[in-house]
Amino acid sequence: MFLQQLINGLSLGSIYALIALGYTMVYGIVKLINFAHGDVMMLGAYAGYFVLRAMGANALGMTCAFLAAMIFCGAFSLVIERFAYRPLRNAPRLNSLITAIAVELILQNVMRVLPFVGPNPRQFPTMPLLNYSLGPVSISNLQLIVIILSAVLMVCLNILVNYTKTGKAMRAVSYDMGASSLMGISVNKTIAITFVIGSVLAGAGGVLYATAYPQIDPMMGYMPGLKAFVAAVLGGIGSIPGAMVGGVILGIAETLTKGFISSQYADAISFAILIVILLVKPTGLFGSKRTVKV
Description:
The structure is a single chain. This protein is mainly alpha-helical. It is built from eleven helices and four strands. The protein has helices spanning 2-30, 37-55, 59-85, 93-113, 141-163, 165-175, 177-182, 187-212, 222-235, 240-260, 266-280, and strands at 122-123, 131-134, 137-140, 215-216. A two-stranded antiparallel ribbon has the order 1-4. The chain has a two-stranded antiparallel sheet with strand order 2-3. The chain is globular and about 55 Å long.
């Protein structure tokens, strides 16, 4: 039972980690908590839904659904960044935070009134469920897809950030935006790319989440988005490895709570972890203190 819950927790935690990466990347560069990120995940789930309805829930359909969700969310993030966040980049942080909450509410309510979406939940098309036994535990083909694809995307992100010119520019802007601009780095372009990468991962996370929990609605991104934010804080907001580890820890903690205590306490445990980590180690597991000159 314990090993089975670990497998379930790894599957759920992988999705949280993908979404948390968007939070931590954007915060690492512009110090903005993008609360609309969970709703970008919701848009990705709907993009995947319409593709799967058209092509069927098969291997080709799933591949096209992932590509459509990632491309749509990446393109939409450019619109959000350009018209909602960029004009407020030099404004007090509270202004940007309020704008992020406003964008979240706008996305939710616009999706509720669109005639081809609507407020009612929809069944997400999924591939036939197949279970594979590994000794005392079993793992489904859908869980394998979630875990493997999440791991591949995280590895690709790590390579991009650490071994490419774009990643070097992202790290430079994160460290000192002004100096980066003086050294010839396009700050606006780098920040836009960061938003796109985070939203691409959120789009993939939306399809994975809907595959694991096959029901979608315009409010579906709210709670996973909050939990992904908890995962980012747990790992150390601004730390990419921290977001990955924090997501997995949160997913395992949630599934263990559901399996051994009660599913009613799963959300409470997640936010209790946030309170504890803020009290014990406010910088998170992988975060570090920074000295700021005033």
